[in-house]
Structures are given as structure tokens and as C-alpha cells.
Amino acid sequence: MADTKAGFIALIGEPNAGKSTLLNRMVGAKVSIVTHKVQTTRARIRGVAMEGQSQLVFVDTPGLFRPRRRLDRAMVAAAWGGAADAEIVVLLVEAHRGLTEGVEAIIEALEERISPNQKVALALNKIDRVKSEVLLGLTEKLNARYPFVETFMISAEKGHGVDTLRGWLAENLPDGPWLYPEDQIADLPMRMIAAEMTREKLTLRLHQELPYQLTVETTNWEERKDGSARIDQLIYVIRDGHKGIVLGNKGETIKGVSQSARQELEEFLGRRVHLFLQVKVRPNWLEESERYSEMGLDFKDGNS
């Protein structure tokens, strides 16, 4: 298979720019957490897509923002680590927000961190929210600010322009053997994907800061003789009051979360799942290296 191509593609941008939505659209399956809340992608999730003879390995990085806590710093380090390892970097910018301070900061960092042999493309996302003349003006402004090799107009949510972007990426990857089996869509362990699915449901149900102060860990995965799987997960929170919020009145919140997470897991795995959730108060989980390893982050990267 001498004519095959393969390589890593890093999707970077501000929180909520649409990176996870684009990754899931490219791969054709849900491998990354997608919510209306920002900063929800913690690990560098790799999704694998096939386009002709090219294998596109996407690194969906946490949103780039100004870090305040250890977890924030580890997430930002993971994002730039993902970009540094990639053959192609795609900067996603929300068309309706334009050249924000955050985008400006990312471009400045690109100039310092990206090597000359890496290709950096620009993808203006959510184009359905702005008029064409605004898009053209923004394209000129951003390309004057950084020498992007190509600019794409897309709507990751609706799929507009995504095929064109995927085709270009496939053409511009280096020649070489595929990095993963053809039928593999993600290189995250299934335990972590299951934990991410439950965390997404919690993020959707809960409000304000709480989703960023909890984490989910898959503690047990048991394959049963009837083909189903029993999955046990622990939800760590930092305060007793948070435990009550996660459980909800008469356990309604945790019950709803468990039900929706189980349904999505069954759809993803194509078989029956028995999901058991427990909530545990762990005041210092944000300072425990094991929790970072579970999320695919480096604890040391959280040092200021």
C-alpha cells in the first residue's frame, strides 16, 4: 500500500469554537464530548477518519484559554502538546465572534510554537451566523495576521464545507502506512470514553462551576456471558453540598444522568449495558495525579 497517506491533525481554538463537533462530524461517530459549556474537552482525544487512501488522525485539544488552576494549566499544556505533534494544525475561529483577544493570543503562540514544516489552516466555523461580506472581511484580517496555507468556511454543526476541508487534509498528509486499523475510530481506552459520556450528561444537567469541579472514573468493566457489559463509575466531587446536587431530589438527577449515559453507551457499543454510578466526596481530587492520568493529562503540566 505504497500510495497510502497518514498523519496527525490538531484542531485548536478557543473554548466552544466547535472543535469537538467538527471532530465528531469528521469521524462520523461521537468520540468527543460536546456540550454548550466551554472547556469540556480535557484529554487529547484522537478520532480516526478515512478519506480515500488517507488516514486522518484527529487530535481534539482542550480549548486554549488563560489558565487559573492546576487542571486549567494541564489542559492548555495538552492542547499545545497536541499541536506540536501534528503534521497539520487547523485553527477554528467562530465567525460571529471574529478576531477576539483569545484568538489573537493563540495566533501569537502559533508564531512561537509551530515549526516551519507544519501546515496551519484556518477554518471559520458557524458561518451560518454571519453575512458573506463579514466573512470576507474577517478572512482578510486573519490572513493578514498569520500566513495560513488555506482558509475554509464551515459549519461543523450542519456539515457545510466539512467535506471540502476533509478532502484537503487527506491530500496534504505525508505518504506513509496507516497508523491505526481501518475500523478503529478512536485510540482512547473504552473506559475513558465511557467516563467522558457520563461526564457529558452531568455537564448538561448541572449548572455554573460545578461541572468543572467533578470528574468521572470508570472503576470496573465486566464482560458478561450474555454479551452485555457491566460498567461501574465513580463521580468525584469536592464538597458534600456538590454530592447533594449531583444526586438531586430523591436521586432524580443521578438517575436521569445514568439513564441517558447508559442509552448512549448502548448505542455506541451496539449491545446492552448495565451502568452503576456512585458519587464520592474527594476534596483534593484536583491535586491528585491519578485523576489527571485517568483524563489523559500530565499532572506535572499543571505546575505554575
Spell out the key features of this protein.
304 residues; alpha/beta; Rossmann fold; GMP Synthetase, Chain A, domain 3; 2 domains; six-stranded mixed β-sheet; three-stranded mixed β-sheet; 9 helices; 9 strands; 36% helix; GTPase activity
**Overall outline:** globular
Total of helices: 9
How big is the Rg?
A: 20 Å
Taking the sheet with the most strands, its summary is:
6 strands, mixed
The end-to-end distance, rounded to whole angstroms, is 46 Å
Secondary-structure class: alpha/beta
Query: Average pLDDT, to the nearest integer?
Result: 81
What letter string, H or E per element, gives the SSE order? EHEEHEHEHEHHEEHHEH
Assembly status: single chain
- Roughly how much helix do the residues carry, as a percent range? 25-40%
Low-confidence stretches: 33-42
Query: What's the CATH H-level homologous superfamily of the largest domain?
Result: P-loop containing nucleotide triphosphate hydrolases
Looking at the overall shape, the CATH architecture of the largest domain is 3-Layer(aba) Sandwich
Subunit structure: Monomer.
Main location: cytoplasm
Region (G5): 154-156
Subcellular location: Cytoplasm; Cell membrane
